[in-house]
Amino acid sequence: MVENDVLQLNDMSVPELQEMWKQYFDSEPIWKTKRYYIPRLAYRMQELAYGGVPENIKNLLLGKTVLKHSEIEDNGSLPRIGTRLVKTYRGKEYNVIISAAGFQFEGTYYKSLSAVAQKITGKRISGRFFFGLGDGK
After folding, report:
1. What angle do CA 135, 112, 104 make, to 5 degrees?
2. Do 20 and 75 belong to one domain?
3. Are residues 34 and 69 in the same domain?
4. What is the DSSP string of 17-78?
5. Which structural domain range is residue 63 located in?
6. CB within 8 A of 109, min separation 6: which ones?
7. Is the whole model's pTM more than 0.90, yes or no?
């Protein structure tokens, strides 16, 4: 199991970790401390066993998936998970991230875009309408 292999890294010597490095990476090991090898090897072992970070999460972390209010298509559905909606309201820019847990706004998750729109405007308003996702019906 990968978990056991990762735990065993702590018990290995630097030369053993350097040998393992050669198995997992296409480079020669150059560091002389366990503190360098253990987290990188652990990550690589888990990455190979379970898969890497999904593309939509990479894009979210790198800030690549951003839809401005004027760029949103009206096809009746929400943008995919990981999309950041940007809305300017009364001169201030607001960002909402669509996630599997809901709609993240200022560190809080909301169940609906309408709840986020109400938080921003102080009024009951359709979130789809406010963020330009269709007609808001």
Report:
1. 115
2. no
3. no
4. HHHHHHHHSSS------HHHHHHHHHHHHHHHHH----HHHHHHHHT--EEEGGG---SSSP
5. 56-130
6. 99, 101, 102, 103
7. no
115 pairs with which residues across the strands? none
Nearest alpha-carbon partner for 116 in 91, 137, 134, 89: 89
HSE-up of 53 (CA within 13 Å, CB side)? Answer: 10
User: Are residues 83 and 37 part of one domain?
Assistant: no
Residues 63 and 95 in one domain: yes
What is the separation of C-alpha 69 from the centre of its chain, rounded to a whole number of angstroms?
21
Q: What's the average pLDDT block by block, 10 residues per block, for the chain (137 residues)? A: 91 94 90 91 91 73 52 58 88 90 89 93 92 68
DSSP 8-class letter at 70:
G
Give the single-character DSSP code of 123.
S
